[in-house]
Amino acid sequence: MSGLDTAQPAVPFYSTVTGTVLAEASLDAEYWWHNVRKPVLFEDAVRQVLAAGVNVLMEIGPHPVLRTYLNDCLRDAGKDGRVIPTALRDDDDPRRVRGAAGQAMVAGAGIAWPVFFPSAGALAELPNYPWQREATGTR
Length: 139
Description:
This protein is mainly alpha-helical. The chain has 5 helices and 2 strands; from the N terminus they run ααβαβαα.
C-alpha cells in the first residue's frame, strides 16, 4: 500500500473509523481501506468533537443528511450550538459556501484572520460624522 503521501493534519482530525481524534498522521492507505470496510463510528467521533469544546459544526456535502444527527448529538450533550450546511439538494451555488462561512463567523467559530489578511493595512482617519467631508484628526 504505497504511493499515498500523508502529512500531519493542520487541524485535529476526528475519525469515524476509530471514533477518536487521530494523534498522528495515520491517514495512510490502510486507514482508508478500513474507512470503507468498518462500521462508521459517527456518533463517537462527534461526541469527541463536542467534548473538545466545538459547538459550530459545518456539513460539507450536496445534501445535508447528517444535520439532524449532529443536532441530536448537540442536544444529547446538553450543548448549545449550530449546524451549518454548505449546500442543499439541487442548490450548489458557490454563494452557499460563502454564506456558510459567514454563518460560522456569526455563530462564533474561530477565524484565522492572518489567512485572509496576511499583512497589516494602513489605518485611515475617518470623519466623526457622516456630514463632515474631512477627518478632524482626533478620535
